[in-house]
Amino acid sequence: MTSNLTSEEQAAAAAVERSAATSQLRFATAGSVDDGKSTLVGRLLHDSKSVLADQLEAVAHASRSRGQEAPDLALLTDGLRAEREQGITIDVAYRYFATPKRRFILADTPGHVQYTRNMVTGASTAELAVVLVDARNGVVEQTRRHAAVAALLRVPHVVLAVNKMDLVDYAEPVFAAIAEEFTTYAASLGVPEITAIPISALAGDNVVTPSANMDWYGGPTVLEHLETVPVGTDPSQDPARFPVQYVIRPQTTEHPDYRGYAGQIASGVLRLGDAVTVLPSGRTSTITGIDALGTMVDVAWAPQSVTVTLADDLDISRGDLLAPSDHAPETTQDVEATVCHLHDRPLRVGDRVLLKHTTRTMKAIIKDIPSRLTLADLSHHPAPGELAANDIGRVVLRTSEPLALDAYEDSRRTGSFLLIDPADGTTLTAGMAGDSFAASADGAEAARDDEGWGF
After folding, report:
1. In angstroms, rounded to a whole number, what is the distance separating the alpha carbons of residues 440 and 455?
2. Fewer C-beta neighbours within 10 Å, C or N terminus of the chain?
3. Rounded to whole angstroms, how far apart are CA atoms 165 and 30?
């Protein structure tokens, strides 16, 4: 935390930092088919002593039945029968493990082009993405696709894991050439931090323990980097956003006039006495109480769940947003966004959908689909008319009610939304408000030229 925080906030932050076990990192793996994602995850779990004995025995048994002498660690994550039969990853596999330094939530995402939507799902909440590359093949089309998805989703940290170094005799020039090509490409998309690590997931080189075969590499292992990469942000640097999830009105003899607004702080800091605006109504009031799990506090910050009381009795319900009066987002009914279509049924101009943003759900209509992005070369197809499953493109929506929406670049939480089928509640599309790609590393905007970087 920075000096912008009060002494109380700094003390609380220091307590969290001192308790390393409370630190948590959400990360996702991605890469082309057969690059070794599941093997890397299995090696990471195995070598960090995060696999139970019965799990390891089950994997060993399954491996022997397939004629393999050594346990196939990829089977620790490939749980579906079709995945084991085909030797590929189809669905996102979530794994939870911990070391003395940090807790982890890992999303192992598929590598096939037709499962791009699964990577979007797995990486949407990730703070770090591990992109694997086969050292024999170098940066391929799918590598660029996954780098572009990570950039679109504003994943703050990207690790390039150059795998199968044992199959290229652990040659440093091979690693250096791949690392330079990928870093240049990802940086042009606006990825803020890229770390390249040469590994062999099968042999265990530089996954958990340093490799004796690559003494020319002096950087961290994959696990060391995962344990030390900065997570989270200083909440005081972001405007407060508090989506109301539930209105508490006990109306009892003890609390006849109590009216509290419960929810999870999406970003920023709430303080006693703050002037806030209720959106979309625009009414204003002042915070008179903050209840954090039964304890009254003077300050709370994201992602704490709290109950807030206000000085005025206002008409506030689920879906309303409390924001600082001096940093409140604009409300609008016209939304332009980058979306990834997740459903097998195409999204078409004229479709009527439900838009879910934080705790608010409203009706919306697709007014236009200006373009569809080709992630392989970042070109775009103008006016496609529809988006099929796994397509990423730009859409223009009109909502039935005013919506307080931040740009996704400013807030991944309050700048994102889902489009839902009003007939059966099926999730159709994931949306990110605002521009497509972040600014490039040197501060200039990502190129918007004839190659179609912009929409």
Report:
1. 16
2. C
3. 18
The residues that bridge with 339 in the sheet, in sequence order, are: 393, 431
Burial class (CB in 10 A: 0-12, 13-18, 19+), 169: exposed
Percent of the chain surpassing pLDDT 90: 57
Residue 106 has pLDDT above 80, yes or no: yes
What H or E segment, with its residue span, contains residue 382?
Answer: strand 379-382
Measured CA to CA, the distance from residue 47 to residue 204 in angstroms comes to 8
If phi over 0 gives left and psi between -120 and 50 gives alpha, with beta otherwise, what is residue 86? alpha
Q: What pLDDT score does 116 carry?
A: 77
How far apart CA 442 and CA 439 sit, in angstroms, is 8
Instruction: Give the pLDDT confidence of 84-93 residue by residue, as tens digits.
Output: 444 444 567 7
Quick one: which of 193, 229, 153 has its CA closest to 411? 153
Kind plus residue range of the DSSP H or E element containing 152: helix 141-152
Tell me what pLDDT residue 269 has: 95
**Matching residue, tokens 């806030």:** 276
95 bridge partner residues: 106
Q: Give the tokens for residue 341.
A: 């279509």
Taking the model in full, what pTM does it have?
Answer: 0.81
pLDDT at 2 over 50: no
The backbone region for 258, taken as left when phi is positive above 0, alpha when psi lies in -120 to 50, beta otherwise, is: beta
**294 contacts: CB under 8 Å, gap ≥ 6:** none
